[in-house]
Write a structure and sequence with these properties.
mainly alpha; 174 residues; single chain; three-stranded mixed β-sheet; elongated; 8 helices; 54% helix
Length: 174
């Protein structure tokens, strides 16, 4: 029974979550260590450049129909991964020039890109099997290490797992 509930927790609950999980499934990404953003971006013809400045996505300056994700080189590895995933979300989900949009549209696109990054970097279907390797108090740090993400993001995703467990009537302590 617990195995079935843990599997159900990892099933997508939103359109965006299901799209990201289909992408991961298509690329046969099943383990945290397989989430290689450079490989994923190259699949779409997107180059990743490091620069001293604000992270952003834009058209390639010399190659038509290609894009670049520029990521701030001053960020640590885990925060770079979040920025790259966020900008990839913009490129895959959004059309148009954001600065010319209304404030509410910009906020919506930013929120959607943040959720895309969360689903891509810490897919919920990968988390339950890993929880057997640690206790509740160690889980966020363990997930942050395995998925190579900031601890704050790992805590957020772990809280999502706990709330889905709670919604199923299971105790959220072990």
């Amino acid at each position: 029974m617990l195995a079935a509930i843990l599997q159900e927790i990892g099933e997508p609950k939103t359109w965006l979550e299901s799209r990201v999980y289909l992408l991961l499934q298509h690329l046969r990404i099943e383990e945290p260590e397989q989430i290689d953003l450079h490989r994923l971006c190259s699949t779409y013809g997107i180059e990743i450049w490091e620069l001293d400045g604000r992270s952003r996505a834009h058209a390639h300056p010399t190659i038509a129909d290609r894009y670049v994700i520029a990521v701030d080189e001053r960020l640590d590895h885990t925060h770079k991964r979040v920025k790259i995933a966020h900008e990839l979300g913009h490129l895959l989900l959004h059309v148009g020039v954001q600065p010319h949009s209304h404030t509410w549209m910009i906020d919506w696109q930013e929120s959607q890109a943040n959720h895309f990054a969360e689903h891509l970097l810490l897919p919920l279907f990968m988390i339950p099997p890993l929880l057997a390797e640690c206790n509740r108090y160690q889980a966020p740090a363990y997930l942050a290490e395995r998925f190579q993400v900031p601890l704050s993001l790992a805590r957020c995703r772990f809280d999502r797992v706990l709330s889905r467990l709670h919604a199923k009537g299971l105790p959220v302590f072990w």
